[in-house]
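To: structure desk
From: M.T.
Subject: fold request, one chain
Message: Could you run this one when you get a chance? Sequence is below, nothing fancy, just the single chain.
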Amino acid sequence: MSAAATTRFAERVRRYACDAVQFLWAQAEKHGRISAARPARLRFAHIGEGACIAFPPGAIFGEQCIAIGEHTLVGAQVSISAGLAPGQDLGPGTVVDIGGHCSIGRGSHIVGHKSIAIGDHVFLGPYVYVTDQNHTYADPRRPIGGQPPVNSRVAIGDGCWVGTGAIVLPGTRLGRNVVVAGGAVVRGRFPDHCVIAGVPARIVRRYTPGRGWHAVSAAREGTAAEPGRCPEPEEAP
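Reply: Done. Structure tokens follow.
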């Protein structure tokens, strides 16, 4: 076989190999997803009709305390966890409750220990991090990782939009139709119909009946930052 023929044969083999890998990956994505029609749904507290967790998933455990509403799409490599480790007894009820018609972007993490409630029609961009637990650092003599964590419930209201890379910390309460800018670090309570941005996140725009959407100045409003103040944490049981 000539050198040219050998080269053509090698290129053909590489092409077939690439086609085979792409075909197998497409089949894995198709058959590896979790939905209400697949047996894997039985591990979860609830997976609604039309809901889907894409393949490949991230770290998912504590499924018996995770509920996902109808027609919610969970993107690939999304981690959803309830509790500290697989097999932990968390008691009755759900810890992570995701509503219907939501979209959870690729690579996001939803890490629940006490309660994370996400409403209906909520969109999380890629790589959003939501948690209801913080480590404490009260004792300066002990490593932070060895000090007991504290939990504080998180609630994200119906219709919210959370931008790429945002971090939602324990104790956060977002009202309805709140826009969270990409990269924001959110902690505290925020009312309906506002736009929040920054580190830490503060209200930058809000909707007022009769006036419509308008910019907000913390200096002008005086107490505009107060909705972003974090409530006292709830001690972990």
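Reply (cont.): The CA atoms of residues 44 and 82 lie 11 Å apart. Let me know if you need anything else for the meeting.
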